[in-house]
Amino acid sequence: MNETRSPLQSFVIYAGALLILVWSGGPFIWQFSTSFQLDKMLTSGSPSLIPHPFTLEHYYNAFVEKQLHRYVWNSLVVSLATTFLCLFVGSLAAFALSRLNIKGRFGILMVILSVSMFPQIALVGPLYLVATNLGLLDTYTALIITYLALGLPLVTWVLFGYFETLPREIDEAARMDGVSVPGLLWRIILPMSLPSLVTTGLLAFITAWNEFLFALAFTSNIDRQTIPVGIANFTNLYYVPWGDIAAASAVVTVPLILLVLFFQRHIIEGLTQGGVKE
Amino acid sequence: MTAAATVSSVRRPRRLGRALPGAFWGLILLTPAFVSLASVSFYPIVNGLNLSLTNTSLITQDQDFTGLSNYVQLWGDPQFWNAWWHTMWFTAASTVLETVIGLGMALILCEAFKGRGLVRAAMLVPWAMPTVVTSKMFGWLFDGQNGIINYLLLHAGLIDQNVNWYGSPDTAMITIIIADVWKTTPFMALLLLTGLQTVPISLIEAARMDGAKGWITFWHIRLPLLMPTLLIAGLFRALDAFRVFDLVYVLTGGGPADSTETLSTLSYKVLFSTLQFGYGSAVSTAMFITEGIIALVFVVYLVRQIRRAQ
């Protein structure tokens, strides 16, 4: 179709593409640049994209004064545990729904998916009471248990979609070779699904890494608070430390962006298959 | 695959339906997922409904059944209706904007051009960023004094003086909608793009052969075929927008003068600032019901559309 394009059409397409690029990347680039600029330059009234003079002061403040690394550690613990649990529980469920003779499979799948649409604010009150009674406030456990349930619908759904694409002849062959049901999942289906496991794992990780509401409600001190809570509380007494916030934002977002860019093709495929094709 | 080949030469009679027996292993494999979802999603919803019929408060330590009195109070509570309208307005505005702009982006990405991979990759940045970070980032971009947006608009001559974006009741909600549209539109566009790519190219080329202009092929071929995708993506987006919490809580905290208070932020304050778990649960249950109605309306409309198409 390319050769039939008029100069005007080409112009519209390239202008549009440039607009999307600026839209998507612009704000974060400005945030990134802000993190290297002195406060007095930020308030000087003539902003510049190139930091001049260049400073690491905000990174120093974020780590030394605000102890950012402690939030990062908490987030890492919670998110990694959530990711592995989600993959484990999710692949069991997705395997059962895809491979076993279960009545009402699609009903079950729809229920699992609709759970992800429950307003989380309706869950947080009752769960807070449960956590209080069990002594789980200010623990990783409370966050991990909650995030498992938050990530599970999407993980199950996407893995189910992937398992469905694997040919059924494999099952039959394995069964006739005497492989048990768990053996089929563990030794045959999962090794064949590595790409999908990586992307669904990444989705579960992002869900946990970015979650704010439950972390805000369930944790009250820096020993257990995760990054979103930490950054939300990044304020000084008399002014908003935009530079420090920008530095913290860069620290927690850049690794995520690199991961996402690295796996982008799989992410888009995985999510769209889960979200729309059904 | 060698195993598959050897087995197929043996030729045993094929069992009907799925190859594996379901009952026993099915139960075992599904149990962890069921336990997780039942305890963290279903139980709280039911318990929340229960709490909403009591005067539970963590301050007074009351916990008595009070029937529907919380809901009666809710019905006459201007703060609740204020938040309800804000939430509806936010949901409608952001969903419509995100769908329309997302469709525009998807149409551009549908064309082949140099650097398309780069653009597609960049579009995942807003999606991957933690919402709290987005919120803080917009706080800086739209800062009333030193914000870059004010600077750019001022120098472009579009405004005469700095606008106090999220610091003033007139513009605070608009700022939040802009932030939400920024964060979710690119991902919406990627969803719609996969929908667009399933439209057979032969169909579009045939229409072009017949002399149809780009606009006509869009309106009569692409859009109708994209409709189911558009509606489903819109539904998920609307349900998600309806729950908005992080963005509002971090950027404005519901202020100034309650002008950005949404149902989620109101519930959170009633629950965790005043510790009235009974009344707070009534607010969140009312929210759950409203969300259910929105979903129902969408689904009914969707089913009708699909029926009509057949």
Structure notes:
- The complex is a heterodimer of chains A (278) and B (310).
- With 278 residues, chain A is mainly alpha-helical.
- Chain A has a domain at 70-233: MetI-like fold, CATH 1.10.3720.
- Chain A has 14 helices and no strands.
- The longest helix of chain A has 32 residues, at 68-99.
- Chain A is globular, with a radius of gyration of 23 Å.
- In chain A, 47% of the residues are buried.
- Chain B is mainly α and 310 residues long.
- Chain B has one domain (69-309): Orthogonal Bundle (MetI-like fold), CATH 1.10.3720.
- Chain B has 14 helices and no strands.
- Chain B has helices spanning 2-10, 23-51, 69-75, 78-110, 116-122, 124-128, 131-141, 148-155, 172-197, 201-209, 214-242, 246-251, 263-272, 277-309.
- In chain B, α4 runs parallel beside α9 (172-197).
- The longest helix of chain B is centred in the N-terminal third of the chain and has 33 residues, at 78-110.
- The radius of gyration of chain B is 25 Å and the shape is globular.
- The two termini of chain B are 41 Å apart.
- Mean pLDDT of chain B is 86; it is low at 1-19.
- Chains A and B meet through α1, α4, α5, α6 and α7 of A and α1, α2, α4, α5 and α6 of B.
- Strand-and-helix sequence of chain A, N→C? HHHHHHHHHHHHHH
* Shape verdict of chain B: globular
Counting DSSP E segments of at least 2 residues, the number of strands of chain B comes to 0
Main pleated-sheet profile of chain B? none
Q: Look up the CATH topology of chain B.
A: MetI-like fold
Counted by DSSP, the helix tally of chain A is 14
